[in-house]
Write a structure and sequence with these properties.
The complex is a heterodimer of chains A (about 280) and B (about 70). With about 280 residues, chain A is an alpha/beta fold. Chain A has one domain (about 10-275): Thiamin diphosphate (ThDP)-binding fold, Pyr/PP domains (Rossmann fold, 3-Layer(aba) Sandwich), CATH 3.40.50.970. Chain A is about 40% helix and about 15% strand. An eight-stranded mixed sheet of chain A has the order 2-1-3-4-6-5-8-7, with helices on both faces. In chain A, strand 5, helix 8 (about 180-195) and strand 6 (about 200-205) form a beta-alpha-beta unit. In chain A, helix 2 crosses helix 8 (about 180-195) and helix 5 (about 100-105) crosses helix 6 (about 110-115). The longest helix of chain A is centred in the first third of the chain and has 15 residues, at about 30-40. The relative contact order of chain A is 0.13. In chain B, strand 2 (about 25-30) and strand 3 (about 35) form a beta hairpin. In chain B, the strands form two sheets. A two-stranded antiparallel sheet of chain B has the order 1-4. A two-stranded antiparallel ribbon of chain B has the order 2-3. Chain B is of the alpha+beta class and about 70 residues long. Chain B has a single domain, classed as 2-Layer Sandwich (Alpha-Beta Plaits), CATH 3.30.70. The chains are: A alpha/beta (about 280), B alpha+beta (about 70). The interface between A and B is medium-sized, with 30 and 22 residues.
Chain lengths: ~280, ~70
């Protein structure tokens, strides 16, 4: 390993023989993946007790690079597999790394029901507003009227607000951050990891190759600047009008309301009762 | 404690994010790779390390004997 030129963090938490990663020049996913690795290290989890699960898409390549127990599953089913892992081994820190298409489109049902159960999984959505890997089709988080390869005249569908969706579905920790706001992202990931129930972080990433190019948002640097210039926090947004917050990325902690975790309830209310032979 | 800025050009994809957001502006992109153009002005703040999508630039801290 000594001949690999990388920081201590990367050597410690990544499979360096799999690097460099396949993501495009300036893709925000690399920034977010590094921030997540830093957060896992900062909270002091035993690496053997961390399990990272992904589905399909650009985002879902992440666990392949990260040196933990990892699972690369089928499209949209990361949270379903993660639910199985968590129920079988509740002592594991289960983290889902998914994308906007994976989590909010094909996996939308798993997303809302995992939130409803408040199962102890930390879900980080690498939200780049597009299906990158398959060629730039619009996703449920593509802003309305923006273009995509499947929406050449503009996307006429409303956008999912993943924070509101997660909150309404019952997730106990919900936040949003971006690939530009790295120190904030690390702090938010740490809090999401430490929350016992279902945590959701809508992590805004930039896809210069498809979303950026299709929408004339420029290259990687310009997309980062766009995130920097158009982000406001939830507290500031509260005092602004709907018109003023239109097209803004609202970041920070949206909800932090610890609630009983599903596996703990399952142990107490089902397994313990069955073992005691309580009659139904 | 000596801090040095390290660049792994094999991993650098030349996106330019590090150079753009470098506070003292000591980084540049030459032929799609990052270069440190002014070593003396680099403050080793490591913001480039935080922002690099490819883990190609980082600040290393070495213990100095004596």
């Amino acid at each position: 390993m000594a001949d690999i030129m990388a920081s201590n963090l990367i050597r410690q938490t990544f499979r360096t023989d799999k690097l460099p990663h396949i993501w495009c020049q300036g893709c925000g996913h690399g920034v977010l993946m590094r921030a997540a690795a830093q957060a896992i290290l900062n909270v002091g989890f035993d690496p053997d007790k961390v399990c990272i699960v992904s589905g399909i898409g650009c985002s879902s390549r992440a666990p392949g690079y990260m040196n933990y127990n990892t699972l690369h599953t089928t499209h949209g089913r990361a949270i379903a597999f993660a639910t199985g892992v968590k129920l079988a081994k509740p002592e594991l820190h289960v983290i889902v790394m998914t994308g906007d298409g994976d989590a909010a489109a094909i996996g939308g049902n798993h997303f809302i029901h995992a939130a409803r159960r408040n199962i102890g999984i930390t879900t980080i959505v690498f939200n780049n507003s597009i299906y990158g890997m398959t060629g730039g089709q619009y996703s449920p988080t593509t802003p309305m009227y923006d273009t995509a390869t499947t929406a050449p005249y503009g996307n006429i569908e409303q956008t999912f607000d993943l924070c509101k969706l997660a909150d309404a579905s019952g997730a106990s920790y919900v936040a949003r951050t971006t690939a530009y706001h790295v120190p904030q992202a690390i702090k938010i990931f740490e809090k999401a990891l430490l929350n016992k129930g279902f945590s959701v972080v809508d992590a805004i990433s930039g896809c210069p190759t498809y979303y950026g190019r299709k929408n004339k948002k420029g290259n990687a640097v310009q997309m980062m600047k766009w995130m920097k210039d158009n982000s406001i926090d939830f507290k500031t947004a509260e005092k602004m009008t709907a018109d003023e917050i239109k097209d803004k990325i609202i970041t920070g902690e949206y909800k932090n309301a610890p609630a009983p975790e599903y596996c703990e309830i399952y142990q107490k209310e089902v397994i313990d009762k069955v073992l005691k032979g309580d009659a139904i | 404690m000596a801090k040095t800025l390290k660049i792994n050009t094999a991993w650098c994809k030349g996106c330019g994010i590090c150079a753009e957001f470098c506070p003292p502006k000591v980084l540049d992109i030459v032929r799609e790779k990052v270069v440190l153009k002014d070593m003396d002005k680099c403050t080793k703040c490591a913001l480039c390390e935080l922002r690099c999508p490819d883990f190609a630039i980082y600040v290393e801290t070495e213990e100095v004997a004596g």
